[in-house]
Amino acid sequence: MTDARMELIRDWLAGELGWPRDCRLEPASADASFRRYFRVWKTTGVTRVVMDAPPDREDTRPYLQVTRLLQGCGVHVPEVEAADTQRGLLLLEDLGSTHMLARLRGGGDPGLLYDQALAALAQIQLRGGAGARELQTYGAEALEREMRLLPDWFCAYHLQLSLDAGTEALLAEAFAFLVRELVAQPRVLVHRDYHSRNLMITLEHSPGIIDFQDAVCGPIGYDLVSLLKDCYVSWPRARVVAWLEQYRLQLAAAGAGSGAGSGEFLRWFELAGLQRHIKVLGIFARLWYRDGKSAYLADLPLTLEYVRDAAARYDELARFSAWVESALVPRLGAANARVLAATELA
């Protein structure tokens, strides 16, 4: 912890914010981006979190913008106590170190935890309309570009699978179908990573929501699937569908766009999820092959299972589903084993 950015943080805390220069400063959480988070203690025991976002890699201004928008929705996001956007430093309220996934794994009540998470998401979707219009539209180009991460990183790098012209055409057809479906959904303020590792358990107004700087104006099903078909924890389909219907009825009671009925809402949810999980397969592979972060490879099997399940439910994706079963599923185990062996030898 003696790198130049650490010294910059200490200079900022002591010189501009009046913290003791020798205050305790420790890593607070891991992140898939270039951002880092540090918990800082005052001698009184008061803690805050410093976001370190190197300005040549990350821009803190979207985080500040979305903080304002989410606060306007009435949900719990970290208060920003100080900001230096030029140096990429923010001093934030400390929401603690227990996220929803840890509480679930520790025996927490899923009913309560998901009720709280869904209630907060409903506030965002019901009250965030004006805020969503300030954000970039999650449109066809972005959705298509994200899905290209599957062939470019998951297939080419992780599975070492070359695609012929016929397969490329098959993927183009499937991706175009998903893009058409997602852009036709009602648009809301979308967090983009509304899952159990980004929902903090707090004493008051739980959950606290983090990692929202990439928010966009996008399809209504997207954050729902991030939560209910989380890449880090799974639930039986019947329970997921029940949570989804509970949520749809809440939207309908508020007069919001909840579709023609449970069938259409489920379709929105599942197809948004398929787009997301196709993307995530590529992202998790890229985090290892480009960024050297291997931990996410353990989450590939569940993510691929979500892709298999959703694709198999739609006739329009029959060819894509068959390709997933024949080309991707049989190769994943060996690919993960190869990386595990390489990391153990390193």
Going across the major beta sheet, what is the strand order? Answer: 1-2-3-5-4
CATH architecture of the largest domain: Alpha-Beta Complex
Radius of gyration: 21 Å
**Name of the CATH first level of the largest domain:** Alpha Beta
Counting H and I runs of at least 4 residues, what is the number of helices? 13
What are the secondary-structure elements, in order, as H or E? HEEEHEEHHHHHHEEEEHHHHH
Structural class: alpha+beta
First-last Cα distance: 23 Å
**Spans of at least 5 consecutive residues with low confidence:** none
The CATH superfamily label of the largest domain reads Aminoglycoside phosphotransferase (APH), C-terminal lobe
Average pLDDT: 94
The dominant shape is globular
Topology, number of strands: 9
Please report which band the strand proportion falls in: under 5%, 5-15%, 15-25%, 25-35%, 35-45% or over 45%: 5-15%
What does this structure look like?
The chain folds into two domains: 4-93, Phosphorylase Kinase, domain 1, CATH 3.30.200; 100-345, Aminoglycoside phosphotransferase (APH), C-terminal lobe (Aminoglycoside 3'-phosphotransferase, Chain: A, domain 2, Alpha-Beta Complex), CATH 3.90.1200. It has 13 helices and nine strands. The chain has helices at 4-15, 61-73, 100-105, 110-127, 129-132, 140-147, 149-159, 165-183, 221-228, 237-253, 262-289, 300-312, 318-345; strands at 24-29, 36-41, 47-52, 80-84, 89-93, 187-190, 199-200, 208-209, 216-219. A five-stranded antiparallel β-sheet has the order 1-2-3-5-4, with helices on one face. A two-stranded antiparallel ribbon has the order 6-9. A hairpin with a 4-residue loop joins strand 4 (80-84) and strand 5.
